[in-house]
Hints:
The chain contains six helices and five strands. A five-stranded parallel β-sheet has the order 2-1-3-4-5, sandwiched between helices. The radius of gyration is 16 Å and the shape is globular.
Amino acid sequence: MSKAILILKGSPRERGNSSTLADQVAAGARAAGAEVESVWLHGLDIQPCTACNGCGIPGGRCVVQDDMQALYPKLAAADAIVLASPVYWFTMSAQLKTCIDRWYGFQGTNWQELQGKRFGVVLAYGDASLTSSGGINAVHTFESMCRYLRGEIVGIVHGSLSGVGDAEKKPALMREAQKLGEKLAGA
């Protein structure tokens, strides 16, 4: 049975560097037999959580009627989730953070739809390193999130990619992204 992998692209640029690397993850996963769906978050209507806590009752669900309603079943069905983002202001993009904040909508089932998932992380930044760019803050957030969900970060692909199209100029990084996809598609 093939793995289902959901890729969440958090860049406002549909063809930005983090999206390009996420596409390489997808290619690697597909080559290894996985079913992959990529979602460009910037193109969706995802509102912030309103803190109404309607999802907090047993069996409750998020009451905000926007494009997250279509994403919830995809998140639940995925064997692995890839979180791809440029680093903006020392962490992940607002598009990805807003989507992750809305995962709160699973609290009525104690997040069982997300428990034990495998995760991949893709980050692109304009500074010299993961630390100086602040990308490390996003990594720490993802690590904390995975601990809480008893999930596993299978791999993190990141690179200093400040110009449009820089990802394609780094074949080793592109191959690393492809290998992450292959790994996510594995057992």
